[in-house]
Every structure is written in C-alpha cells, then in structure tokens.
Amino acid sequence: MSLPTRVAALTVVPPRSVTDSAVGADERRERCRIYESGESTLLVSYDPATVGRYEKLVEPWATDRYPLTLDYPVVDGLKFDAADEDGRPWDVKGSMVNGVRPTFKFWEDQHETLANADGGYALVWYRAEGREITVVSSRTVKARDLEITNWTNPGDTHYRSHSREAQINPGRIRP
C-alpha cells in the first residue's frame, strides 16, 4: 500500500533564511544551524514551535491512515492523541528523518498508561520540506509490545519532570 507523499501545512512559518537582513546573526544561531559542504548549504531548524507544527501534521495523517479518531482522550489524567474504535488510547509520534538527531520520545507514565489500557502508538517517519512534510514510512505498535529500557530523568526544570523519558532511535523500530 503506498503512502500519501505530501501533507500541506497551512500554519507553518518556516525559519527565516540566513540571507534575510532583518535577522541578526545571534538570532540566526538561536533559530537554526547551518551545515555547509562544498557548494551546498543545509539549514536545519531548531525552532521548537516549527517542529511542533510538523508534529501536528503527523497526527491527522496517521488518523487518516489507521482506524483511529483524533479526539485527544484523557486516561488516568494523561492526554493522548487518538482513540481506536474500541475507545483505547493511542499516541501519535513523529520522527523527522532529516532532523539533526531523529528520535522518538516516550514518557514513562504515558507508556505505562497506554500498556495498561491496551493502547499503542502510531509511529510516523517524515521528512520536513518547507511548509510540508513527506511521510517516508509508518507503523502501529501496541505499547505493551514496545519494550523501553533506557528511561532517564529529564531534569527538575523540565515541565514533565514528574515522569522519566526515553528517546529511541527510529531505526530500531522502523518497519
């Protein structure tokens, strides 16, 4: 089955170009990192708002592709992205394959809640391309079938310091 290749983003504001004279050098360093090799230059965004907007494109793509409804159910005080036809919670996770360090991030409290509720994850690998994303591949996995052993503390100042996090290399779980 072929995947739709592009998802349009109507609200994504791409990072400003490094040639934009309205942006100072310090601001450019905060918003992006530039990699140069020979005649080509790669501008990689570090703007969390932009990455978050790409993630918001992944959610409707996944719920169109899989039998999930994007309704943000709350289970045990935790909010998830979608529910299946039996009401089980699912979380949609995206990994930007052309990002600096592609990963899927998981939270222990959410993972345990999903496993206990027989829910799971819709995992989407995508490439960010300006105002769009191109989906490279995707899969679903039940939370109880995804063994995560590298839980770490995100730090006391993190807004989710009450739970541990794990980052998994997308190649480890790619279909």
UniProtKB/TrEMBL annotation:
This is Uncharacterized protein. Residues 152-175 are annotated as: Disordered. It comes from the Archaea.
